[in-house]
Design goal:
By secondary structure, the chain is an alpha/beta fold. About 45% of the residues lie in helices and about 20% in strands. The longest helix is centred in the first third of the chain and has 31 residues.
């Protein structure tokens, strides 16, 4: 018989074998289906368009939908609205790249409740060669909660709930990095409770714990929310002031903290008086790394205890040159110019009436390779002593003029650039030629340059120096007197020099809204400047209260002068006084700290500040 022709019996046997195989396959399919549906993990399959083609029971239970509510719908229905666009793009990239991925997502269920899942996605093609994505979903919400609890415990003190040493050190490291980029200080305050051991010994540890908790709560409620308050252990607390521009802020905060301990603490129903001793380390002066800052603040705290308890001590008030003598710093300064370590920062000067940026003061900084960014008061005295102020001053003038011209070439409205002069610069025989050559090279209009001199410079200058200043004035260069009111009385020189601006020292404005004497002095300077046809430039505007009070003084001055003008109009055709100088430009941290040239350009793009 031909082996390709089977008997009827053989065919029946083959059919029965095939039926058994089909039955096996059905059973396997049913088992797989049961496995998929009963597996404690969400399973889904979506097509290239992101539409569901399969979901198991656990997936439906996870999201609160029935299979019918999901099949044929887009997977983004379980994604929070703010993340939908990003995840749709991610799905497109997945289908294109065809790689297995595992990601953590925030998702929402049918009740719009949010929870967290881990999703592993695998690319495959079905029997029709169509691309698909299979995803395995695990709910990790409870796991995340447990992780958050462990994280909280790892970063917080169990007794007070305050950040612990680990949290503080990470915050301090981050704040230091920001300081080095943004040119401001930070302060570390190290507090220790005086005679705390006696309280533990006499009243017991439970009373000591209650006192620690009470101190923590009082500090927490009283400190600025941007500060980091930490308990280091025992009766030691450490406070981080992450962004400080003036030492006064640190001092005021220290005094406020000391004052907090004047009121008693109620422990077990009884009043308990206790004081604290505090040491303060300031970055970058007292250390450029976290460990040194804390060590020096701790050292200052022990110094406070030896003086008299219940007070604070600064570690130092100058640069901590533990590894640098002044001679070494001076040697470094000789090479600062050639190594391009000097940089200029610019602080905007703003029209108080319109908010427009009308000028900028150029302020030098030294990016020291080991000491970090140094302010001028940390190295300019050295430069004046050794004569380096001459090349440094020339570099500042060249850089500022070139930068101002560059901004104008970019299409920004012209502004005046203000540059500080030293007495040594003016005394140079070629001073006038130096300035005129810089203006010629930079192509800057002389009227866009303002040279700042101090009262002390004017008093020390001889007739030849004053002639030089007037020669530059005739070219169109503006002159202003910096820190007016802080030096010698030079009213006669104000008249003879024919200045354009008086820059009012920040000390008169620091608490002008609270100090009646400062208010009276400032008002008197304002009327004096106006009578001499001078503009004023109030410096150090740091708060909205200062600005509001300043505007009140200016409005009062305008009203007073207008009455005088009206009176003069009745007796003469042209009044001798005017209110034109009573809309001054101001500068201060309320608007912007001194910033590098690229950041100042961003301010120029905005064009103006909002004056409330």
């Amino acid at each position: 018989m031909n082996r390709y022709h089977k008997t009827k019996k053989e065919l029946i046997q083959d059919i029965e074998a095939m039926e058994k195989e089909i039955e096996k396959l059905k059973k396997t399919h049913e088992n797989l289906q049961t496995l998929f549906n009963t597996a404690p993990i969400g399973l889904s399959i979506v097509n290239e368009e992101g539409l569901y083609e399969y979901v198991n029971e656990f997936y439906c239970k996870l999201y609160g939908y029935t299979p019918e509510e999901l099949i044929g719908k887009h997977f983004s229905m379980v994604i929070p609205s703010e993340n939908k666009a990003a995840l749709i793009e991610q799905h497109k990239a997945f289908m294109m790249n065809r790689i297995t991925t595992t990601n953590e997502f925030k998702v929402i269920n049918k009740k719009q409740e949010q929870f967290t899942v881990i999703v592993t996605s695998v690319y495959f093609t079905d029997s029709n060669a169509l691309p698909k994505k299979a995803s395995y979903v695990v709910d990790i919400t409870e796991q995340k909660k447990i992780e958050e609890i462990f994280r909280y415990q790892a970063y917080h003190d169990s007794l007070t709930g305050l950040p612990n040493r680990k949290y503080f050190m990470e915050s301090l490291n981050a704040a230091r990095e920001k300081c080095s980029k943004c040119n401001h200080m930070l302060a570390v305050m190290f507090l220790d409770l005086d005679r705390f051991k006696n309280i533990n010994d006499v009243l017991g540890h439970s009373a000591g714990d209650l006192l620690i908790q009470s101190v923590a709560e009082r500090l927490r409620k009283s400190l600025d929310e941007t500060y980091v308050l930490s308990r280091f252990g025992g009766d030691e607390f450490v406070i981080l002031l992450p962004e400080v521009y003036y030492i006064d802020i640190i001092i005021k905060t220290a005094e406020k903290i000391i004052k907090l301990f004047e009121l008693p603490f109620i422990i077990h129903g009884k009043e308990l008086f206790i004081t604290t001793s505090m040491g303060i380390g300031i970055y970058p002066y007292d250390g450029t790394d976290s460990e040194t800052l804390i060590k020096n603040a701790d050292t200052a705290m022990y110094k406070a205890k030896t003086h008299s308890r219940g007070n604070y001590q600064l570690y130092s008030s100058a640069i901590n040159l533990s590894a640098f003598s002044s001679l070494a710093l001076e040697n470094d300064l000789y090479h600062a110019l050639e190594k391009n370590q000097l940089v200029l920062y610019y602080q905007p000067q703003v029209n108080i009436c319109t908010g427009e940026i009308v000028g900028a003061e150029a302020l030098i900084r030294w990016q020291h390779p080991e000491l970090g960014l140094l302010n001028p008061d940390q190295f300019i005295p050295l430069a004046e002593d050794n004569g380096l102020i001459i090349p440094i001053g020339k570099w500042v003038l060249e850089t500022a003029c070139m930068q101002n011209r560059k901004w104008q070439d970019f299409g920004y409205s012209p502004i005046k650039i203000a540059v500080n002069l030293s007495a040594l610069q003016i005394q140079q025989n070629d001073f006038v030629d130096t300035v005129t050559n810089i203006l010629r090279t930079s192509r800057l209009n002389p009227s866009d340059l303002e040279l700042e001199i101090t009262e002390s410079i004017v008093m020390k200058s001889d007739i030849e120096d004053l002639i030089k200043l007037n020669q530059l004035k005739q070219l169109g260069i503006k002159f202003s007197m910096d820190d007016f009111g802080m030096g010698y009385s030079s009213l006669n020189n104000l008249k003879n020099l024919n200045l354009h601006h008086l820059k009012i020292d920040r000390s008169f404005l620091y608490d002008i809204d609270l100090n009646s004497n400062n208010c009276a002095i400032f008002t008197a300077i304002l009327f004096l400047a106006n009578s001499l046809n001078l503009n004023i430039v109030p410096e150090g505007i740091e708060t909205q209260n200062q600005l509001d009070f300043l505007k009140k003084i200016l409005n009062f001055a305008r009203s007073t002068l207008q009455l005088k003008i009206n009176a003069q109009l009745q007796t003469q055709s042209k009044p001798q006084i005017t209110t034109e100088n009573l809309c001054p430009k101001v500068q201060g941290f309320l608007f912007s700290p001194p910033v590098p040239a690229d950041q100042f350009e961003e301010l120029l793009k905005k064009g103006k500040f909002e004056i409330l």
